[in-house]
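so my prof wants the structure for this chain in the tokens format not the other one, which i didnt know existed until like an hour ago. anyway here's the sequence
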Amino acid sequence: MLESVIESLRNYDPPQEDQKTAKASYLERVEDLGEKMLWKPLDSQHITASCFVFSTDLTKVLLTFHKKGQFWVQFGGHLEEEDRDLPSAALREATEESGIDGLSLTGSIVDLNMHELHGGFSCAAHWDVGYVALVDGDTDYVVSDESENVAWWPIDDLPAGITRDLPKRIEHALSALKLQQSR
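here's what i got, hopefully its the right format
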């Protein structure tokens, strides 16, 4: 898994300067700490994988109201032993948390975001790696045990109670997705 994480990060070609800086920080930390960066029990700061689920027309995003964090956010979480790589972890998390079968990722990494955690979290920080899946905006979903709610939201009218960085992360994801689609 470690080599595939490093390869995914090396292959990420971000369009934004802040993402280029994040990529360098991620690579340095993962190469320095190795496996400690992958698994929750080994360090209080570690890689997580997430998935922005957008409607196929790119006007809506499916968000979850995180039970522990009490905020609206994209689907995601910790790497697990059965995950082959970062994309499979992101896809597993999105499927588990949305209940949507048959999701598939559109391509490579679209967003890197290191965020510190407080309150009820046992982790100090997540070094999150984001991907995108596209589905029809009328697709049915379910609310998992980790969430209080799941709902579609217009990208230009996000709900109150989102994480502070979510609008920027959505912007990163959409910019990277459009770049991937143009290639």
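also thought this was worth mentioning. Helices lie at 2-11, 17-33, 86-98, 166-182.
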